[in-house]
Structure formats: structure tokens, C-alpha cells
From TrEMBL, chain B:
This is Dehydrogenase. InterPro entries: NAD(P)-bd_dom_sf (IPR036291), SDR_fam (IPR002347), SDR_member_12 (IPR052992). It comes from the Bacteria. It holds the Pfam family adh_short. It comes from Nocardioides currus.
């Protein structure tokens, strides 16, 4: 089982500014309600850059190493997240929409070891999590300087 | 979209039953339901240039005719110019005021697509719409001039190369990929875009290439949105086209009484090219309404598969990444 959630929303901020904000994954501290801390471990912000992300999920804290695997300014951001029990993808598609942008955020998760029993719980919780994340993300993006 | 809930529910129920939705019954019912999106305004394409590939048969003729009826100068982009000229004359008999041009291009040959795009791009400063309608279903596995599996080349690689080469001329334009409901039965095969593994089946090759189109649709729409290009994909339902007549005779013999005619199959392409305001970008349409790209959980692609497919597509078409950070 590979729980996936995808949400599309619009923001008044143009694609380049959206991309620059989201491609720096340390900003997840602001826009991702689950992220407690996110720091850059290696790299210059481009493809191959790694981040240490600490997040809480259903009351449990976990540390995940994220790697930027695709960055096509300003349209595509793809990070993979990994720890012993978890593999995930965060993908953001950014599209020009009037003078702002339409953003599609997709998160895909897979679990190994005992964590795989959590997959159905995660799947059930995802719509709620997605709404909270997208609300925060949109609010942050709308306030960015163009 | 402002359709009443009951008519939307009926529309969706027909869509998921396939047989009701994809036949002419589905279109007839939908047209009668409240909330059916309005036709493009008469004359809405007057003075505009539009391109229709595969315009010498089936849905292509009907698409060209539908666009000409709205006032567009229609460029019939065909492999066989003599056949194209016959179609031009046939449409002109029905629409004496239409302006129709025959253009030669083999959409499956990327060198020829680049030649064609350069020539027409020199001639026309602005193109209002492209309907990528050309389709093939080779009975045996066939390779294009560049060594790509032919249905993939004609349905995806050629359209991508043509659109990319015409980005300046297409600013603000509509671009429509004609897909197929057959793609619902196939998963994304990013591991084998050339159909090199397993036994070749014409219908599977066709449906796989149509699946690849809709999987790559959002990424291509993102890319071309930067030029104000509005990219959509659609499926025509089950239409009685030469492709169906030659390649699926048994399917045709059973379903013929309810198969759509060409104009019914082309309806959504014409609507997407001309309706105002532009429908939302990067969506998959059938009968003037957005549709899901998966009906079965088993066809849902993973992010790794999409990334692999995108890497393959950019390589095969020579798309230069927008701007890769740090690669």
C-alpha cells in the first residue's frame, strides 16, 4: 500500500517566487504544519541537496532525510524522503495561472518494517493532513513578495 | 462549473459505465441536460490560424470542419497531400466560405516535425490553436525514423516537438492532445516506452501511448503555461473512425449502432480550442467536462514512474529543461 494525496490550489504569487520559496526545503518549517525543524545537511540548494527534517505525525516524532532529486525552475520540484521505515515523495508542480500560479502538491508514502502496519492509518488521516498543509502553504505563498 | 448536482451525477454515472457515456447515447443525453457548457460563439475563430494534424480522415476531418465553421483558417496537417487536397475540397463544398490550407508533415518523424514547425512558424506570427489528432495503430511493432515505437512517436513525441518548436507563435493559444478512453485500461509503462518487452499488441501499444499522453499532460501544461499556452487532453468516446474500422472490426460490428459519428467525437476538441474563457489548463476532458485519468487503482502511476517517464520524454524530444538548479 502506497498512500498518496494530491491537492491543487491557486496563489496570487507568480511561479518563479513560488518555486524559489518551495525549492528551499528549509522553508517547510513555515509551510508544513507537521515539520518541527528542517535544516540543510549538504549541497547548495540544487539537485542532490539533502535536508534533515524532524516532523510529528499522529503524536510521534520522526527524523527523515530528504533529497532534492528534480528541480526545474520554476515548474517542478521533487524531493524524496527516507529513513529505516519510510520512503516518501514530495512533488510540486507549478503552473502560470493569470498573474499568479496554480500549484499541485502530491505526497506519496511507503513504509517498511513494522511501520507498514501504519499505512492504512496514514491513508485515513491524509485528507485531514492535506487540508491543513495546503491551507498553510497557500497562506504563506500568497504573502510572498512577487 | 455551474451544472445542477443531479445532472452532474447522471453525467458521471454514464461516464463510469463506459458504454452509456462513450457512445452517442451519452453525448445525446448530456447535451440535453441542464448545465451542458455552451457552444463556442459563432465567428469566435474568425481571422485566426489553427492546425489540425491527421486532418485527412475520421475525427480530423470533423475537427477541421468544426473549427472552419467558427471562422478559423484551418491548416490540414497531413502525411498525404493528395488525400489532404480531397478532404479540403470536400469540406469546401459544405462550407464554401472556409479558408483551408493543406500542409505536409509526418508527425511520427521528429525531423519532419521540426522542418514543418520551422516553415509554418516563419509564415504565421500567431497560431490560435493546435489539435494534435494524428493517430496510428500499427499492426506490427514499427519504429519511427528516430527509432521510437511508432504509436508513441505519433501520439506523444511528435506533438511535443511541434508544440515546443512553436512556443513563440502559440503564446495564449489552445493546444489539444487527442487521447483515448482506451488508456483507462493500461498503466504507465515508464520502464518500457519503446514496447521492447513482451509480445506486441496493436491495441495495447495504442493505449499505452495514450496513457503516456495523459500522464505527461500536467508536466507539459506546467512547462507551456509560462508562455500562456493552454494545454488540454481529451478523449472522443467511441467513434466510428477509420482507425476503429480497420483495427477493431469485431468491436465495431457489436457497437456500430451506438458508435458516435465523427462530429460527435470531435465535439470536445473543437470546444476546447474555441470556448471562452479558456478551460482550466492541464486537465483531461470528455464531453466538455473534466474527467479523472484513472478509473482503476491498478493503473495509478507512482511518482518514480512519472519521473522516469518525464526523463525519457525530455530526452526523446530534446526538451531543454526550463532551468535545472545545480544539476
Amino acid at each position: 500500500m502506497r498512500p498518496t494525496v494530491s491537492r491543487t490550489f491557486t496563489t496570487t504569487t507568480p511561479p518563479e517566487a513560488v518555486f524559489d520559496y518551495l525549492a528551499d526545503f528549509t522553508n517547510a518549517e513555515e509551510w508544513d504544519p507537521g515539520t518541527v525543524s528542517c535544516e540543510r545537511v549538504s549541497g547548495d540548494g540544487g539537485v542532490g541537496t539533502t535536508y534533515r527534517n524532524v516532523s510529528t505525525f499522529l503524536g510521534r516524532e520522526s527524523e527523515i532525510t530528504y533529497t532534492a532529486v528534480e528541480l526545474e525552475r520554476p515548474t517542478r520540484i521533487h524531493l524524496t524522503g527516507h529513513n529505516e521505515q519510510f520512503d516518501g515523495h514530495d512533488v510540486l508542480g507549478v503552473r502560470a495561472h493569470g498573474t499568479g500560479s496554480e500549484v499541485t502538491y502530491t505526497a506519496e508514502f511507503s513504509f517498511s518494517g513494522t511501520a507498514r502496519f501504519a499505512a492504512p492509518v496514514v491513508a485515513a488521516y491524509l485528507p485531514f493532513l492535506a487540508r491543513k498543509t495546503v491551507d498553510e502553504l497557500k497562506a504563506r505563498l500568497d504573502r510572498l513578495p512577487a | 462549473m455551474g451544472a445542477p448536482i443531479a445532472s452532474r451525477a447522471l453525467d458521471t454515472a454514464m461516464d463510469r459505465s463506459l458504454v452509456l457515456g462513450y457512445t452517442r447515447i451519452g453525448l445525446a443525453v448530456r447535451r440535453a441536460l441542464p448545465g451542458w457548457p455552451a457552444d463556442p460563439a459563432p465567428g469566435s475563430l474568425a481571422g485566426e490560424h489553427v492546425l489540425v494534424t491527421g486532418a485527412s480522415s475520421g475525427l480530423g476531418i470533423a475537427t477541421a470542419e468544426g473549427l472552419a465553421e467558427l471562422g478559423a483558417t484551418v491548416h490540414l496537417v497531413v502525411r498525404d497531400e493528395a488525400k489532404g487536397a480531397r478532404v479540403r475540397d470536400e469540406i469546401a463544398r459544405r462550407l464554401p466560405a472556409a479558408t483551408l490550407e493543406v500542409r505536409r508533415c509526418d508527425v511520427g518523424d521528429l525531423d519532419d516535425v521540426r522542418r514543418f514547425a520551422a516553415a509554418i512558424g516563419d509564415e504565421l506570427p500567431s497560431i490560435r490553436a493546435v489539435v494534435h489528432n494524428a493517430g496510428v495503430m500499427p499492426p506490427e511493432r514499427t519504429e519511427s525514423a528516430q527509432g521510437h515505437e511508432l504509436s508513441m512517436a505519433v501520439h506523444l513525441l511528435g506533438p511535443v516537438v511541434m508544440t515546443e518548436a512553436l512556443r513563440p507563435q502559440l503564446a495564449g493559444a489552445r493546444v489539444v492532445l487527442v487521447s483515448s478512453g482506451g488508456m483507462y485500461g493500461q498503466a504507465l509503462r515508464s520502464d518500457d516506452p519503446g514496447y521492447l518487452k513482451g509480445d506486441y499488441s496493436p491495441t495495447t501499444a495504442y493505449a499505452r501511448s495514450k496513457r503516456m499522453q495523459v500522464e505527461m499532460l500536467p508536466l507539459l501544461a506546467d512547462r507551456w503555461s509560462l508562455d500562456g499556452i493552454h494545454l488540454s487532453a481529451m478523449h472522443p468516446g467511441w467513434a466510428d473512425t477509420p482507425g476503429v474500422q480497420e483495427s477493431l472490426p469485431r468491436f465495431r460490428s457489436i457497437t456500430r449502432p451506438v458508435l458516435r459519428d465523427d462530429a460527435e467525437g470531435a465535439d470536445t476538441s473543437v470546444w476546447l480550442a474555441a470556448t471562452e474563457p479558456a478551460p482550466a489548463d492541464g486537465r483531461f476532458w470528455h464531453d466538455r467536462r473534466e474527467r479523472p485519468i484513472d478509473l482503476l487503482p491498478t493503473t495509478r502511476s507512482t511518482q518514480d514512474q512519472r519521473s522516469a517517464a518525464w526523463a525519457w520524454l525530455t530526452q526523446a524530444t530534446g526538451l531543454v529543461p526550463n532551468q535545472t538548479k545545480g544539476a
